[in-house]
Amino acid sequence: MTENPYLAKAIIENLTPVYRSKVEEKWAQVGEIVVMHDLLSPVIRTYHEPLRFHVPGGWYKPDFLHILQDARIIIMEVKGMRKLPSHRDSRAKFRGVAEIYPFLIFGFAKLTKGDGWDIEWRNHTEPPQNIGQKR
User: Which of 7, 17, 24, 76 is least buried, going by the fewest C-beta atoms within 10 A?
Assistant: First the structure.
């Protein structure tokens, strides 16, 4: 049986994400902490660009997906400057997808001048209080 030479390459590429911008790279470093602080649950897994949504006028591919310990799924879009043309397009697609998928939590994070994050949350509700507790 011959081995597929592309299999190992595909696996290695999935293990080391390539970020499209410095802003995505910064979020990859601190995003889990920011999400945990805002949503009060530890992040157990983070994926970079793992999926895409079909929206009117094309596709929307969010930057990150976080899975929280309390089983909530967070879809994150991160942006640096508001003046870029892609900012308006991403924001419109972000809002449209959040309306279509009300069972997912969406966050639109903008990097502020002091290296902080301003986050607009969609579909966010407080987590149930009994998850993870013994009865």
Answer: 7
18, 30 contact by CB (below 8 A): no
Q: Show the beta-strand stretches assigned E in the chain.
A: 43-48, 53-55, 58-60, 64-68, 73-79, 105-111, 117-122
Instruction: Tell me the domain boundaries of the chain.
Output: 5-122
Taken as a whole, the chain contains a residue count of: 135
pTM of the model: 0.76
Q: What is the per-residue pLDDT across 8-53, written as a single tens digit (0 to 9) for each? A: 554 555 566 778 889 999 999 999 999 999 999 999 999 999 999 9
Dist. CA 14–CA 110, nearest whole Å: 26
In the DSSP assignment, the letter for residue 121 is E
CATH of 5-122, one of 3.40.1350, 1.10.510, 2.70.98, 1.10.150: 3.40.1350
